[in-house]
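Supplementary Text 2. Reproducibility record for the structural model of the 489-residue chain.

All settings were left at their defaults, and a single model was retained for analysis rather than an ensemble. We include the record here because the model underlies the residue-level annotations in Supplementary Table 4.
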Amino acid sequence: MRVFIIGVAGAGMAPLAALLCKAGHAVRGSDVAFDPPMGPRLREWGVETVTGTDPALLDWAPDLVVVGNVCRRDHPLAVAAEARGLRRVSLPTALRELVFPGRPVVAIAGTHGKTTTTAMVAKILEDAGLEPGFLVGGIPLGGEPFALGRAARSLTSRSAHAPFVIEGDEYDSAFFEKQPKVWGYAPQMAILTSIEHDHVDIYPDEDSYLAAFRGLCERLPENGLLVANAADARVRKIVAGSNMTARVVWYAGHDLSGRPFPGGDVGDELPIWTAHEVGLTGDGDVLQRFDLFVGPTSVGRYGVGIFGTHNVANTVAAIALAVEGFGLPVREVAMRLANVRGVKRRLERLLDAPITVYDDFAHHPTAVETTLRAARARHRSARLVALYEPRSATACRAMHQEAYASAFVPADVVVLAPLGRSLPEHERLDLPRLAGELRARGRTVLTPASLDELLAETRALVRPGDVVVSMSNGAFGGVPHKLAEALSR
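Retained model, structure tokens:
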């Protein structure tokens, strides 16, 4: 089949293109830019790519046109496809029809932690010999089957009924299919990591956002499974208030002080699966150590190759899914976690010395704070420099003005890039006010007028021994890699 993908460099669309290529389809795709990490990978995966929106690109006469959710109704290629009578489908529909038939689907959903947890579940099932297919909205790092940095894996003919693990995004599917993508995957099993109002461009209030997750719970089949975070109050609320019939298994990760992450309590739900952080080991490739419990029973002390309290929670969720959903031996699963190395742009270390540079996807204030706290725990005595680009629809708005003032507290220096969107003054995040509040808390704050100035000022500011954490849900103008390259010299 000939498949044309509009918006092919997206975090979900690029892995879809890879999957379809590996399944034997001829795949072409267009986009306005091909930025890392996905852009450079597309050609490696065998996807023909072209920049632009010229309707003549459809002269190739594809059998199917997959329309990304970044496309509006008036997108030239979407309009041309309709005018030519070409079948248009969303990413979930393409997967459901071309990849999923006959395979149990596992969706990893929630506001935070989806990408890392998806990669982790896929790695666990692969190590167990289940030959899973997977689609991750990022480039997994380290260890088979991720050694080549693949974000997607198709299934072989001998594993036609093997599970498929997918990142369950709550964003809508397409302009002609206004429902959460995760609904379209029709999963049999799911993990629900967290819920916190996000994507305000399509979910104007918290109730509308909560409905996306309630709908996921209610769509799980009666013989399905939900692994849910008992430490998140909204997750507990959604599960309790839904009409779901699937089995629910609760989990929670605890920090060094013994508090469950992220909420500090587990309500009335007693988690069956719990992991308690016990510290870090190693100087280069660190291991985040934790004690694992099933009910009141300890099953040992283990380590995972990604650090941060939030990743203790992600890890116990992945273990619980593998054991409860697939019957894998818990100790064998946990012992293999040291090989897990996370995903690009999730506290990805770009430079070790003389200055340590990390790149991260964080943009919501909770994610910003969690990322910075993880870096602070890893580098306790270093000066921590946070570079932040408010770019998403949520990040650019004033709805989290107060939360951002607290989110950057773990950092010593904060460098704020200009807003990535143009919004009315009463709606947008007030960067001068945020800078003032951070200075009042004793932080050094820079507010450069452009990304070029940000790069220059950061280079002048940092000194050997510093730790820099760059955070943006976009390309950030290449700042993280440009900075790492300059500092390495």
